[in-house]
């Protein structure tokens, strides 16, 4: 791999396939450079972690309820004392609706993607076909050099 890379091939593959699985060096640094190149190409970037996502489809595309840890506070109703449920708007749909006018689309960069199940990865690989302005990059594991593959191929190989 070149010492200084333009990221052009990654951007072309991202626009062609919509969802990529990446393998990054464990010492880090490369993913930040590639995200900066993608942002410079006109995309708005959002980074999330796969840990704690729960139902990926609802978290990204539907209104979903969350219950923060109650920290000793109990709800005062007659139901279970587990705290209140707060409803959060869909992350991807909200971000896409609020894109700047000159933005090409939204880049959703998901770290720690190795914990996702094959069904969740399948959903994420199909999501850009439902919303063409969405591009997804999932970090699937470590490697000695930065490499990527279409997410559908990474699912088939696993």
From TrEMBL:
It comes from the Bacteria. GO terms for cellular component: plasma membrane-derived thylakoid membrane. The keyword Nucleotidyltransferase does not apply. GO terms for molecular function: oxidoreductase activity, acting on NAD(P)H, quinone or similar compound as acceptor; quinone binding. The keyword Ubl conjugation does not apply. InterPro entries: NAD(P)H-quinone_OxRdtase_su_N. Keywords: Membrane, NAD, NADP, Plastoquinone, Quinone, Thylakoid, Translocase, Transport. It catalyses: a plastoquinone + NADPH + (n+1) H(+)(in) = a plastoquinol + NADP(+) + n H(+)(out); a plastoquinone + NADH + (n+1) H(+)(in) = a plastoquinol + NAD(+) + n H(+)(out). Its main location: membrane. It is a peripheral membrane protein. It is an enzyme of class 7 (translocase). Its EC number is 7.1.1.-. It is found in: Cellular thylakoid membrane. Transmembrane segments: none annotated. NDH-1 can be composed of about 15 different subunits; different subcomplexes with different compositions have been identified which probably have different functions. NDH-1 shuttles electrons from an unknown electron donor, via FMN and iron-sulfur (Fe-S) centers, to quinones in the respiratory and/or the photosynthetic chain. The immediate electron acceptor for the enzyme in this species is believed to be plastoquinone. Couples the redox reaction to proton translocation, and thus conserves the redox energy in a proton gradient. Cyanobacterial NDH-1 also plays a role in inorganic carbon-concentration. Belongs to the complex I NdhN subunit family. PANTHER family: NAD(P)H-QUINONE OXIDOREDUCTASE SUBUNIT N, CHLOROPLASTIC. This is NAD(P)H-quinone oxidoreductase subunit N. It comes from Phormidesmis priestleyi ULC007. The lineage of its organism: Bacteria, Bacillati, Cyanobacteriota, Cyanophyceae, Leptolyngbyales. The gene is ndhN.
């Amino acid at each position: 791999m070149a010492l200084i890379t333009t990221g052009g091939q990654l951007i072309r593959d991202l626009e062609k396939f919509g969802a990529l699985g990446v393998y990054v060096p464990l010492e880090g640094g490369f993913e930040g450079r590639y995200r900066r190149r993608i942002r410079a190409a006109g995309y708005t970037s959002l980074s999330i972690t796969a840990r704690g996502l729960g139902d990926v489809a609802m978290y990204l595309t539907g209104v979903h309820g969350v219950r923060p840890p109650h920290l000793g506070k109990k709800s005062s109703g007659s139901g279970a004392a587990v705290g209140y449920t707060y409803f959060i708007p869909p992350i991807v749909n909200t971000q896409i609706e609020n894109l700047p006018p000159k933005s090409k689309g939204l880049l959703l960069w998901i770290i720690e993607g190795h914990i996702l199940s094959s069904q969740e990865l399948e959903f994420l690989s199909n999501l850009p076909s439902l919303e063409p302005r969405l591009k997804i990059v999932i970090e699937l594991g470590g490697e000695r050099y930065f490499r990527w593959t279409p997410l559908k191929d990474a699912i088939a190989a696993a």
